[in-house]
Amino acid sequence: MERLTRKNAAGTWELDPDRLPEAAERLARYECFVQELPRELEQISAELEELRAAGKEKTVKFRELMAKKLTDRSLLLRLEEAGLAEP
């Protein structure tokens, strides 16, 4: 990924004014992604509960959903630790 920001001599971040539209687009996509993660985790948890209730804990679908839940949760935790998402 090509960076759109750089640290200046004062140690603060700056952006080339000519690239503001590109930076705004990338920021908007990032914000949508971060907002969607918790919703997706809730949806996956609900699907897993339905499968558990039906006794389908050993199915491929259940295992795939569990892997996705763990991956998404790990990603969200890393974003939270970096201060890029709300806990």
Q: Give the overall form.
A: elongated
Kindly state the number of beta strands.
2
What's the helical proportion of residues? Answer: 55-70%
Please state the average pLDDT score: 95
Unreliable spans: none
Structural class: mainly alpha
Rg result: 19 Å
| Measured distance between first and last alpha carbons | 26 Å
Taken in chain order, the helices and strands follow as EEHH
Largest sheet: 2 strands, antiparallel
Per DSSP, what share of the residues sits in E-state strands of 2 or more residues?
Answer: 5-15%
Count of helical stretches: 2
Strand order of the largest sheet: 1-2
Task: Tell me what the structure shows.
This protein is mainly alpha-helical and 87 residues long. The chain is 64% helix and 7% strand. Strands 1-2 form a two-stranded antiparallel ribbon. 0% of the residues are buried. The model has no long low-confidence stretch (mean pLDDT 95).
Main attributes?
single chain; 87 residues
